[in-house]
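for the recovery benchmark. tokens below, seq after
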């Protein structure tokens, strides 16, 4: 017998009470029973997003919410600024180009943080820019971009700020209204502790005004259709009922813990992982000025087969972590700690990492990562 531990930054583990809530007989979505659940879910999401804005749900993975922000806000030829310092920023570039937007790319190295001043300069030079895209928490690298500072800059212009907070929500502060984040999105299989299949996006008043002028084609991902249904506390099409039922349960858990405590827990777990891996001589990939709480990317040490690390951790110890993506394949590995995690998930993962690195010939003093992590976790 061997247990499995899912330590990836999406999908993330689903709590037993959430799983059980989804095992109940299916209900119909045009009933008062469903409406009651849906209303609770919308209120719970507003609490987690720290917003009074409308929240729209799609039965899709997170990318559906990303695509919806492009097709609902813009028209072909519209000028937008897209920042990218990783795989998910690149996805916004691809989406913008796919739909014929004029994309002003602000591309950074993957270990760098997006510089708000660059956006300010670009907006000054291009007053006709209609939107700015930022990935708050770059899951491919663990880098955290300062969407608060960017919100302050974009607020003063006619452009709307689109924030991919898919691994930000529920892990780091994301004050949608206070920080002037016009569009904020997340996916179910991340901090919301659900199976994959739902995406949520919040839309500000400023964004709704821009959306009225958008002429890009849209049907399933139409925000206008969703808004019309939302007025009757309904969905335009058959929603993913079981996931919505599960979401009510996970949001209930999140309310009970409290948003501030959730973020504190994530910060502590992230600190413990970082203390652990640096104690055995490994280096973090994300720079100290921009590290999120959802995932820790670690550089593979010289002389170690990087691709073997996730492979052995999974096959031998049942701990599934993520490798590096694109040009970072084999060069970094990523430990997820987003959602349903506590202290002992961290020590388990570090223990499996130590045993794996030992097998791969990396030299270090056994147990030191656990010692360092325990120091953080017991404080
Ligand atoms: C997971 C994730 C997405 C969406 O990916 P899907 O596979 O479509 O759910 C987008 N952006 C970030 C930062 C993510 O972590």
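predicted aa per position
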């Amino acid at each position: 017998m061997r247990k499995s531990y899912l330590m990836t930054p999406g999908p993330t583990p689903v709590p037993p009470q959430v799983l059980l809530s989804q095992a109940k007989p299916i209900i119909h979505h045009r009933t008062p029973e469903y409406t009651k659940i849906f209303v609770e879910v919308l209120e719970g999401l507003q609490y987690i997003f720290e917003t009074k804005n409308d929240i729209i749900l799609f039965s899709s993975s997170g990318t559906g919410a990303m695509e919806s922000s492009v097709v609902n806000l813009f028209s072909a030829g519209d000028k937008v600024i897209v920042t990218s310092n990783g795989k998910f920023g690149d996805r916004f570039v691809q989406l913008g180009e796919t739909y014929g937007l004029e994309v002003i790319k602000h591309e950074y190295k993957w270990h760098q943080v997006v510089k708000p001043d660059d956006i300010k300069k670009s907006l000054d030079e291009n007053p006709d820019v209609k939107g700015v895209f930022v990935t708050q928490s770059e899951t491919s690298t663990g880098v955290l971009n300062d969407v608060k500072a960017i919100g302050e800059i974009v607020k003063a212009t006619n452009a709307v700020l689109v924030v991919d907070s898919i691994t930000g929500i529920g892990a780091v502060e994301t004050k949608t209204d206070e920080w002037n984040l016009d569009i904020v999105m997340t996916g179910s299989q991340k901090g919301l502790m659900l199976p994959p299949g739902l995406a949520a996006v919040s839309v500000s008043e400023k964004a709704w005004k821009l959306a009225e002028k958008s002429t890009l084609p849209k049907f399933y991902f139409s925000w206008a259709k969703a808004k019309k249904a939302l007025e009757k506390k309904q969905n335009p099409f058959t929603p993913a009922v079981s996931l919505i039922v599960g979401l009510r349960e996970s949001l209930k858990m999140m309310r009970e813990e409290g948003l501030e405590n959730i973020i504190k827990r994530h910060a502590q777990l992230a600190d413990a992982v970082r203390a652990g891996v640096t104690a055995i001589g490994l280096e973090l990939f994300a720079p100290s000025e921009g590290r999120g709480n959802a995932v820790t990317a670690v550089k593979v040490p010289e002389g170690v087969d990087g691709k073997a690390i996730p492979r052995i951790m999974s096959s031998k110890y049942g701990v599934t972590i993520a490798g590096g993506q694109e040009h970072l394949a084999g060069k970094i590995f990523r430990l997820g700690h987003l959602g349903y995690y506590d202290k002992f998930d961290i020590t388990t993962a570090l223990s499996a990492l130590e045993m794996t690195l030992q097998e791969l010939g990396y030299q270090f003093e056994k147990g030191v990562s656990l010692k360092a992590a325990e120091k953080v976790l017991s404080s």
